[in-house]
Structure formats: structure tokens, C-alpha cells
Write a structure and sequence with these properties.
Length: 264
């Protein structure tokens, strides 16, 4: 994930070791607390590992050698930077669904580097938007059943897979696991919630590529717009939820303050 050209600028080989990179990030945040987000992105540009194991758990930052989950790597880095940055603050940043994490496209690209920028786009469209598309189709199926007075069932997700990818989720997973060697989190299980988050993302990206192969350009464009629209609605709903939560907290604070003033 790091080009040879980049490595030529680093004379000390140990500078590319994860511990050394994290240590530099901590120092940068200490020196410039306001610019911690940019420091994280620039650290991501230096990061040499596509996968690592922490506490016995494998973490895949790069799916299929193409789709890069920069937020997963940023979380791993920021986990080690506490209390340099409050967890609640960076947690909100990493859960912001905007394409470039609040940065302008050019600034984000410059910070993480061209290769990781392109891989991030692959992850965004191949995993994030694909998941939103699947959810949107599932909701459409549910709404049709409700409008027609039919009884609700848990078949909506299966039907959504059939419409988008031509087969049931279970059958698609079987093919995916045969091709990639992926296994459910629990042996013998085929339920969605028994798969690890990493395998779910890899499966979603595999489904995305399958849809790209089987759909015509017009259908691909239409589905992409649908996924993006759903993602935007989710973002707006999340923003409204935060505003309501903030409003409730503010009202609670004012009520406590009034009660305190009455006592005085």
C-alpha cells in the first residue's frame, strides 16, 4: 500500500514500522491538537500494512486488494492516541458518512495519497453505497407488501438479493465462500449476523462486483443513484437525531440550572 517512491524519502527503515508511525502521530497531535484529523489522514498515507493482527484478531484494511476502509485504519490509530483526542469526538468523525470525512476532495486526496484515495472510492461505492442500495431495495419490497395488505415477513432481505444479484443470500454466500475461502464467524452458520464484520464487507464488495458484471450501464447508474440517495437520507436522519439529542440535553441542563437557582 506504500509505493517505492514514497519509501525512498525515508532513510530509517524502522520509520515504516506501525509502532513508529503511531508514535509520530501522537507527537503530531500533541504539537497541533487542532489539526488532528489531517494528521490522521497523513499517517494513513504512510501506513504500510493492508492487514494486521491485534490481540489475536485479524483486521483487513484492504478488501480484495482494491477497496480501502480508511475509517477502520483511522479507528485503529486513534484508539492508541487517547487521551490525545477524546473518543467521543473522533467517534463522531469516523461515523460521518460523507465521502471525504468533511474534507474537500482535493485535500483528502493530497493527504492520503493517490493510491489510497482510489482504493477509498472503491470501498465507498463497493461497500458503503452497495449496503445502502440493498437496504433501499429491501425497504421498497416491504412497502409494497404493506401497501398491498400482505403479511410482513423476513423474506424482504432474501428477495432484495434475488432482485439485485439473481439469487438468495445463502446461495450467494456459498459461492463467495468457495471463491474466497471466507467462513462464518460460527462454524456451520449461514445467518447474516453470524458473519464477522470483515467478511460482511468483503461479501458486500463481492456482490457489488457481481452486479457490475451482470448489469447494463443504465441499470448500474440507476442503482448507484438509489444507493446514494438512501445514504443521504440516512445521513440527514442521523443529523436530525443529533440535533434532537442536543436539544434534549440542553433542556435538561437548563432545567437543572433553574432548579439550582430556586434552591438558592
Amino acid at each position: 500500500m506504500v509505493s517505492n517512491e514514497q519509501k525512498e524519502f525515508v532513510s530509517d527503515v524502522t520509520a515504516w514500522k506501525p509502532d513508529a508511525i503511531v508514535s509520530r502521530l501522537k507527537s503530531q497531535i500533541d504539537e497541533n491538537a487542532r489539526g488532528w484529523k489531517l494528521s490522521v489522514l497523513e499517517t494513513i498515507a504512510e501506513w504500510p500494512l493492508a492487514r494486521e493482527t491485534i490481540a489475536g484478531k485479524g483486521i483487513d484494511y484492504l478488501i480484495a486488494g482494491e477497496a480501502f476502509d480508511w475509517r477502520l485504519l483511522a479507528r485503529r490509530l486513534l484508539d492508541e492516541c487517547s487521551p490525545n483526542v477524546e473518543k467521543e469526538i473522533w467517534w463522531d468523525w469516523l461515523h460521518d458518512s460523507t465521502l471525504f470525512g468533511g474534507f474537500a476532495e482535493s485535500e483528502f486526496k493530497r493527504a492520503v495519497g493517490v493510491d489510497k484515495f482510489r482504493a477509498h472510492l472503491s470501498y465507498f461505492y463497493g461497500v458503503t453505497v452497495e449496503q445502502a442500495l440493498l437496504l433501499s431495495v429491501e425497504e421498497e419490497i416491504t412497502h409494497i407488501r404493506v401497501a398491498s395488505g400482505r403479511e410482513l415477513s423476513d423474506r424482504s432481505l432474501e428477495r432484495a438479493h434475488e432482485l439485485l444479484y439473481g439469487n438468495t443470500r445463502g446461495q450467494l454466500w456459498e459461492v463467495f465462500s468457495l471463491e474466497t475461502g471466507a467462513r462464518p464467524a460460527r462454524t456451520g452458520s449461514r445467518r447474516k449476523d453470524e458473519h464477522s464484520l470483515a467478511s460482511e464487507d468483503a461479501f458486500t464488495y463481492w456482490l457489488f462486483k457481481l452486479r457490475m458484471e451482470r448489469s447494463d450501464p443504465a441499470k448500474i447508474a440507476s442503482d448507484t443513484r438509489k444507493g446514494l440517495a438512501k445514504l443521504e437520507r440516512m445521513r440527514q436522519n442521523n443529523d436530525r437525531r443529533k440535533m434532537l439529542l442536543h436539544s434534549d440535553e440542553l433542556q435538561s441542563h437548563l432545567s437543572r440550572r433553574r432548579g439550582h437557582e430556586k434552591v438558592l
